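<goal> How does this chain fold?
<body> The protein record starts here
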Amino acid sequence: MLGLHLADLHLGKRLKEFSLLEEQRDVLEQVVAYCEKYMVSFVVLAGDIFDKGIPPVEALEIFDEFLGKLSKMNVEILVLGGNHDSAERLGFLRSFLKHHHIHLVTQYQGEVEKIELVKDGEKVCFYMLPFVKPADVRRYLPEDERIAITSYHDAVKVALDKTALKQDAVNILVAHQFVTGADRCESEEISVGGLDNVSAEAMEAFDYVALGHIHSPQYIKDHPHMRYSGTPLKYSFSECGQTKSMTVLDVRDGKVTISTEPFKVLRELYMLRGTFAELTASAMVEQYHDAYLHITLTDEEEILNVLSDMRTLYPHLCYLTFDNSRTRPLNQNVEVAVEKSPLELISSFFEQRCGHAMSEEQQQLLQDLLEKVQVEK
């Protein structure tokens, strides 16, 4: 039985002011073509289908067209809700759609929903865990058990501990969480102080863990059966060096073999650096004219109308920055501020105003407050 693991489509997302709908439609067409060519049995979408809770109409149309094509091929489609999705909107018509090979699991309702698929002598059980916060799990527990749920890890662990695995099947967990140790990038929504961490040990019992939420494709360190498929497209310039792909799951003789199939992209992302003369040379323009670009100019002298000139040569220019003796000190200060967590920033401000560092009790009180804000958010 052959399947695909995808995640974080973020349909409707824009790169700076540029719509990515054309590129998103193209990669979904590549998924459909792969399913048709290799007779794929299932496609897992591990959350963040849309970029916004209320997606643009064009994004809805692209997703509708995608589901329709896969459903006609009798591909089982397992769709998980992510933190960017509206559970109610994404889950609309879920009872009807499950009779058309489309399974929408958009919110946790007291237990991890299980979907069983049997084909060609193989049995696979999918355990669908949408993005959950501690409060999402607490509401389904008795009053005396709620106090034990103080973190995202606790919430996920309790939800999975209540889940019985099938001994005669391949058990695949589909989850949309941040597993501790995964590498993040700029296009993700970062949680305050890393409060959304979930330890990989909570998911260890499954034969494969199909993860969403982190945009960089990667395996979890020391857990080769846990994988983030990553986004199908590059959504920030921190992802320039990545190869985006489908994760291919070959279920055979009760085991899962993992491989990848790279996506072809309509328009690449590049970060270019150099002087105005170097970057406006005909050879450079010919090579990068159609790409999404972040350009850094190193000229010391001021150049008039530089943005409009660059936009004429590079119509998909997203960012234009400067690195010279006048801007360098400012850039360094900004980088220092960005690298600090909210806890570090508040602690630093306290020390500057009070003349001494926070006590351990004060730091713990601040940490508890930040956690409470994150949970209520």
In short: The longest strand covers residues 122-129.
